[in-house]
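Batch job 17 of 40 flagged for manual review because the log was empty.
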Amino acid sequence: MRTELIVWACVSLLLMAAEMLAPGAFMLWLGFAAAGVFALLLVAPLTPIWQAVAFVLLSLVSVTAYWRLFRKSGPTSDQPLLNRRAEQLVGQVYPLDAAIVDGRGRLKIGDAFWAVEGPDAPVRTQVRIAAVHGMSLKVVLAN
């Protein structure tokens, strides 16, 4: 048996075994590429440079196949804003708890106080939450 066959078989097995040490990585797919080079060497002799080229190309193909076939986005949630409390408030109308002065104020929603940014307005003015900006809510006057 040729030495190159043994080397590529070992590289393939080592890469596949490395996947067990770091699951979720793409070592398995690089192992498949090394196995592909092994299979090519069974069919036709290749110089070391062409073996490296074949490994790179097969690696690109196998990792791309992995990303396209197996790394699809997860199922879409029926409640995409479940853990995004501030974003759930967008579009709702509340009275100001503290006047907006120089663009900053406060409103109370449930048992929590939220910092708001928007046009100056007195206490108890109805404002609509238009957006979330970091930890504060952007508001507009609700007419």
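Reviewer: the log was empty due to a logging misconfiguration, but the result itself is present. The longest helix spans residues 48-70. Unflagging and moving on to job 18.
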